[in-house]
Amino acid sequence: MATAVRDDMFTPDVIADPYSYYGRLRDEDPVHWNDTYALWVLTRHDDVTWMTRHNELFSSAVFRNDPKPAYPAIDESDLGLYEYVRNYQADQFIQHDRPEHLDMRKIVHGFFTPRARGEALVYRPW
After folding, report:
1. Tell me, what's the pLDDT at 41?
2. Which of the chain's ends, N or C, has fewer CB atoms near its CB within 10 Å?
3. Which DSSP string do the residues of 67-121 spell out, in sequence order?
4. What does the alpha-carbon distance between residue 123 and residue 5 come to, in Å, rounded to a whole number?
């Protein structure tokens, strides 16, 4: 489906109001090929959920392995810092596929339960 939504996701008006931009994409073209940055943009929860559960087709490791330069383009003097951040981000467990991702997630999961955080389990009817 062709859409009239601009493909530049990094314009000042999109950054100032991303809800309008992505809301329009969700309504008009929920699985959108962005020609400007050569990437897919998924805007519906069910599509994103399906994609994340099929790592045999869609890998989180693309961030680590992507040979394309940074986009939007960054100043050459910042390339060293960009590579540092890229390598740092690539090591986060969210950037790993199953089963490694689930193994890493099991380690931290216990720290984010209500009991571990010292929260009372309170029923709130509102």
Report:
1. 92
2. C
3. -SPPSS---GGGHHHHHHHHHHHHTSGGGS-TTHHHHHHHHHHGGGSTTTTT---
4. 44
Q: In which band, very low, low, confident or very high, does the pLDDT at 39 lie, cut at 50, 70 and 90? A: confident
User: Residue range 23-48: average pLDDT?
Assistant: 91
Distance CA 8, CA 57 (A): 26
User: Is the CB of residue 3 less than 8 Å from the CB of residue 29?
Assistant: yes
Residue among 70, 9, 65, 54 at smallest CA distance from 34: 9
Dihedral pair phi/psi, residue 41, rounded to 5°: -120, 115
Confirm whether pTM is higher than 0.70: no
> How deeply is 82 buried, as exposed, middle or buried, from its count of CB atoms within 10 A (0-12, 13-18, 19+)?
middle
> Alpha carbon 73 to chain centroid distance?
19
